[in-house]
Amino acid sequence: MQIERYMGRISGPLLDRIDLHIEVPAVPYQELAATADGTSSAVMRQQVHRAREIQRQRFGADSRRVNSRMNSKQLRKHCVLDEAARKLLEQAMEDLGLSARAHDRILRMARTIADLDDAADIKESHLSEAINYRSLDRKLWAR
């Protein structure tokens, strides 16, 4: 109940300005005690450097530009969706009541996820993952 009251204080326009919002549940003991290794910091660092290099190549002369700073013209150019992905985004917009700002943030996040996946195009799976990072939008809409 306290969490719901606190969540009620967060305004939609403020929430729209946050790219990632997810719940992080407690890690079960079995996972903590497991001997299997996850992704190492070195591997993750390499993936991030590779994604940044892709972005540097994409934006050329403006080498400080990154996906999170794309303007609307760049979004239309670099975040082209196939029909399945377009329908998924349209459905999410309607079901979750997302704003135009949230739409653009989802596209920017999907572009970054595709870059981390070393994919030239944004696929439905990249878009789906980006939509899932908008969990607080879902909670506020459910109220």
Write the layout of secondary structure elements.
Elements: H1 2-9, H2 12-16, H3 29-33, H4 41-59, H5 72-78, H6 83-96, H7 100-116, H8 124-132, H9 135-142
Helix pairs in contact: 6-8, 7-8
Describe, in short, the structure shown.
This protein has 143 residues and is an all-alpha fold.
Structural class estimated from helices and strands: mainly alpha
How large a portion of the residues is in β-strands, by DSSP E? under 5%
Q: What gyration radius follows from the Cα positions, in whole Å?
A: 17 Å
Report the helical percentage: 55-70%
Gross morphology is globular
The biggest sheet amounts to: none
Low-pLDDT windows of residues: none
What is the mean predicted local confidence, pLDDT? 85
Number of helices: 9
What's the N-to-C terminus distance?
13 Å
β-strand number: 0
Q: Topology as H/E string?
A: HHHHHHHHH
Report on this structure:
The chain is an all-alpha fold and 143 residues long. It has a domain at 67-142. It contains nine helices and no strands.
Keywords, please?
single chain; mainly alpha; 9 helices
